Amino acid sequence: MGKDNKYRANKIKQEHTIIEDILPLLEKVAELNIIKSIIPGRINRRGGSGIPPHLKLKYPTPSGIKILAKNSSSIQEVFVVTDDVDQAMELIKEIEFVK
């Protein structure tokens, strides 16, 4: 039998907490065929002013792309794994809640 993936729902690793209202945004990114995996990272608190949840593209990494997920009270690092960083960045930029 294969290895148990108890922390993975679709392409999103959920071993750690994902900040409120961000999971649906990550699920939309995960729908892209070019995306292999999404790995949420550490969470930091921030002073907020009621901004809507959104994702912000940051920069390429050795395995893909770093994204910041933000809501009104928190910011979370998210790592997207892909084999084609340039194409993935272009497709992610087209999603309405990505800045």
Structural features:
99 residues; alpha+beta; 6 strands; 17% helix; DUF2103_metal-binding
Structure report:
It holds the Pfam family DUF2103. InterPro entries: DUF2103_metal-binding. The protein is α+β, with helices and mostly antiparallel strands and 99 residues long. The chain has one domain (8-93). The protein contains 2 helices and 6 strands; from the N terminus they run E-E-H-E-E-E-E-H. Strand 4 and strand 5 (64-70) form a beta hairpin. It is globular, with a radius of gyration of 13 Å.
Shape: globular
Radius of gyration: 13 Å
Number of strands: 6
- Percentage of residues in DSSP E strands: 35-45%
SS class: alpha+beta
The major β-sheet equals: 4 strands, antiparallel
Low-confidence stretches: none
Helix proportion: 10-25%
Mean pLDDT: 90
**Going across the major beta sheet, what is the strand order?**
3-6-5-4
Number of domains: 1
- Number of helices in the DSSP assignment: 2
N-to-C SSE series?
A: EEHEEEEH
**Cα end-to-end separation:** 42 Å
Pfam families: DUF2103
